[in-house]
User: What shape does this take?
Amino acid sequence: MKVLLTGASGFVGGAVWRRARELNWDVLALGRRPLSHAGYRSIDLSQPFDLDFQPDVVIHTAARSSPWGTRREFKSQCVDTTRHVLDLCARRGHPHFIHISTAAVLYRDQPQLALDEHAPFPPPPPD
Assistant: This one.
């Protein structure tokens, strides 16, 4: 199985990448920051891109997760990035697509247990 992993230089994507390597998956890892690891490419996913890699699965963890930044930066690094990864999937025969987000989008200064996809966003969301 060939896996394309986005956001590999971040917290969530980095954890997925470490586990994928432990499992000996065939992974092409992408991230914003330059890293010198085999199987890793630094790429700006906020711009249209193409790869010479045919994934069976795409695990998308790339996003801007920060309490700081402009609306334009968040749109570029979250919305546009996801659109470009989905466009790549369409060109590559629609591999399985897994989108993993950070729990920070639901942050509240209180205990949060047993949250699922129906949990409402806090007013206002931090990211």
Notes: The radius of gyration is 15 Å. The chain has two helices and five strands. The mean pLDDT is 90.
